[in-house]
Design goal:
By secondary structure, this protein is mainly alpha-helical. It contains 2 helices and no strands.
């Protein structure tokens, strides 16, 4: 039992080692920002309440669906003009 726990722990350490190195690199990059960067921080990616986002997404989906249905509807065929009679 102890050997299996040790093996799982060792496997997890080996598996997650690249993630830790990547996180450390990212933290170092964020800790020393460029001196010429004077722009304010960007706002959060998602703003608004959950309800507003859900309604907006539903509206976009309904609009896209209606547009698709308009495109897919078949237009009535134009009446064929009779060919002139040979003389």
């Amino acid at each position: 039992m102890v050997k299996s726990i040790a093996a799982i722990t060792l496997g997890a350490i080996i598996a997650f080692a690249p993630f830790a190195a990547t996180a450390e690199t990212l933290q170092l990059a964020q800790a020393a920002p460029a001196a010429t960067d004077t722009t304010p921080a960007a706002p959060a990616a998602t703003t608004g309440t959950h309800r507003a986002r859900t309604q907006s997404k539903a509206h976009q989906r309904a609009r896209a669906s209606a547009h698709h249905m308009r495109k897919m509807s078949t237009k009535p065929a134009a009446p064929a003009t009779p060919a002139p009679a040979p003389q």
